């Protein structure tokens, strides 16, 4: 175990201050995340250096569509999450005990990436489970990666307190942040969390880094037009150019609701496009659902299919109207 950051010692244990749960722990108890434990009056992280999943992925798989499109990124993940979503797609990894995981140091992970071919030496994505609960390892690894000229990306639920996020922001180049729904009731009933801290996280991250958002559309729960109007209006107030990925739900973990109808996905996309420049559909096979279209003239700037990417920009501009692209590259 590795001593954790962001906790307070008390007369009868500790208070974890990493995330909005503020878990009070004593007597060897573990926090709601499953990977931070009190022992002997200190707080320890139980997953430091434990890697349960690793792969070289297209960056579009994160999904990050406007951050160096077409590049590959080394993706790693561990156990632990501070939300408990009934529809979680990675619950087996999230709740794993880590006994079969690979143990490595930040230096070893960065060295592994630097030893690879040029097209695989782009950067690291901290993903699969919740990287915020891998905080100490991500913080140290991202600093080393930055020194080597690598990019850092986080795929996250956005459930972290402002202080810890402030430490990460100078090191993280891109975020994909899940906004599970746009009501407090949804977060309380289906995720064991709150909406407000996630909105605060998005606003804080968007002020200094590249941000894209994912909204999983769950049949009958967060798939109504009024909620999408409120969500897209809030995003537009931050920046109408933030890409939003509406992801189609399929039954998983504790949820057995039917998959989201394609027609519902398309209607919600049209609703969001009234306020936002870039709205994509994920987990669908609809033609054009993941293409990037120029907001100025409607020209297709990037054609995507099954993670194959055809970038059609010319000198970083739309080939038709010459509008500069909104991509980070």
Notable traits:
329 residues, alpha/beta, TIM Barrel, eight-stranded mixed β-sheet, three-stranded antiparallel β-sheet
Task: Give a description of the structure.
This protein is α/β, with parallel strands linked by helices and 329 residues long. It has three domains: 2-45, no CATH class; 50-290, Aldolase class I (TIM Barrel), CATH 3.20.20; 292-329, no CATH class. Helix content is 23%, strand content 24%. The protein has eight helices and 19 strands. It has helices at 91-94, 106-114, 135-147, 162-168, 184-191, 196-206, 225-238, 262-272; strands spanning 2-3, 7-10, 13-16, 24-25, 36-39, 42-45, 50-51, 53-58, 72-77, 102-103, 123-126, 151-156, 174-178, 210-217, 244-248, 279-282, 292-293, 300-305, 308-311. An eight-stranded mixed sheet has the order 8-9-11-12-13-14-15-16. It has a three-stranded antiparallel sheet with strand order 1-6-5, with no helix packed on it. It has a three-stranded antiparallel sheet with strand order 2-3-4, with no helix packed on it. Helix 2 (106-114) crosses helix 3 (135-147) and helix 7 packs parallel to helix 8. The longest helix has 14 residues, at 225-238. The radius of gyration is 20 Å and the shape is globular. The model has no long low-confidence stretch (mean pLDDT 96).
């Amino acid at each position: 175990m590795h001593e954790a950051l962001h906790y307070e010692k008390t007369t009868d244990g500790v208070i974890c201050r990493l995330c909005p749960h503020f878990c009070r722990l004593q007597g060897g108890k573990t926090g709601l995340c499953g990977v931070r434990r009190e022992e002997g009056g200190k707080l320890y992280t139980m997953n430091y250096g434990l890697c349960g999943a690793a792969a070289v992925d297209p960056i579009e798989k994160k999904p990050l569509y406007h951050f160096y499109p077409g590049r590959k990124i080394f993706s790693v993940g561990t156990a632990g999450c501070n939300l408990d979503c009934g529809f979680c797609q990675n619950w087996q990894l999230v709740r794993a005990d880590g006994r079969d995981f690979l143990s490595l140091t930040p230096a070893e992970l960065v060295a592994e990436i630097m030893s690879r071919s040029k097209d695989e030496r782009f950067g690291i994505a901290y993903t699969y489970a919740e990287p915020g609960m891998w905080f100490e390892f991500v913080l140290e690894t991202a600093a080393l990666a930055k020194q080597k000229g690598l990019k850092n990306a986080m795929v996250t639920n956005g459930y972290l307190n402002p202080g810890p996020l402030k430490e990460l922001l100078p090191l993280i180049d891109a975020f994909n942040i899940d906004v599970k729904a746009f009501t407090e009731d949804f977060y309380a009933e289906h995720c064991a969390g709150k909406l407000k801290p996630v909105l605060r996280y998005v606003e804080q991250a968007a002020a200094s880094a590249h941000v894209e958002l994912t909204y999983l559309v769950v049949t009958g729960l967060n798939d109504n037009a009024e909620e999408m109007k409120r969500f897209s209006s809030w995003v537009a107030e931050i920046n109408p150019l933030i890409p939003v990925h509406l992801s189609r739900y399929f039954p998983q973990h504790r949820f057995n609701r039917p998959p989201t109808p394609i027609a519902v996905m398309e209607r919600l996309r049209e609703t969001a496009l009234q306020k936002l420049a870039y709205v994509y559909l994920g987990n669908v096979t609809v033609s054009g659902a993941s293409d990037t279209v120029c907001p100025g003239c409607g020209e297709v700037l990037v054609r995507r299919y099954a993670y194959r990417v055809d970038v059609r920009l010319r000198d970083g501009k739309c080939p038709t109207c010459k509008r500069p692209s909104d991509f980070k590259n």
